[in-house]
């Protein structure tokens, strides 16, 4: 039987999902945007907090909404109106507005083969830089060998708004020099000197990127809906069900981690419009991401 427990860790409210033998565990932090702070699948450590890698700098496992990556100078226009976001990355805004929000628990469910919890956030006092009311719901479902994340966005405003949705998990490898990332892509994002995406370029690739040979900070536009991370301890399929899938891949220096971020559009798409979506009043958008152990 899978179980759900509420814990306190370092003054943070944590919800723990686990199987009976504790070989599969997911820990969710309510105080930090309902992010995954720990994940173990079938005894394999997939996501683990790192010393000297603070969340305010890493955004580890943050849900990214209403934008992902950087918005250049925090400025954008929508339907002939100009908006200014707060800049939290030097001269740019980065990674959305919900990564530090407090979420509420809703509908925990325990079953023989899985358990799930939904976390809700209502934005009813929006910022000037994104003056729209919205509802965001995140459901995590833990199985023995995989974790499903479902995000639902509803526009509860009287006006349409633009958005991008993403997720920022870092995956642990016991040896990045013996790890690789298998993917099939058609294009990559082109960045300026400030790592702000400008456009797409053709970049056909099909195979494995050996991580020992690369310092990655790239956005791949995939032919399909998944990539596979291969490490000495596990192989993990990271999949999404968006109509078009953009994956940002980043390897921080001197850490046993790789960020693999499924996105619905590239960074700065409030300006470059690449993958940007618009949600009309009362409309809902649903996105699923899945992490699954594979052979």
UniProtKB/TrEMBL annotation:
Name of this protein: Aldose 1-epimerase
SUPFAM superfamilies per record: Galactose mutarotase-like (SSF74650)
Organism (species): Polaribacter dokdonensis DSW-5
Subunit structure, as described in the record: Monomer.
Coiled-coil segments: none
Keywords: Calcium
Biological processes annotated in GO: galactose catabolic process via UDP-galactose, Leloir pathway; glucose metabolic process
Cofactor: Ca(2+)
Highest taxon of the lineage: Bacteria
Gene Ontology MF terms: aldose 1-epimerase activity; carbohydrate binding
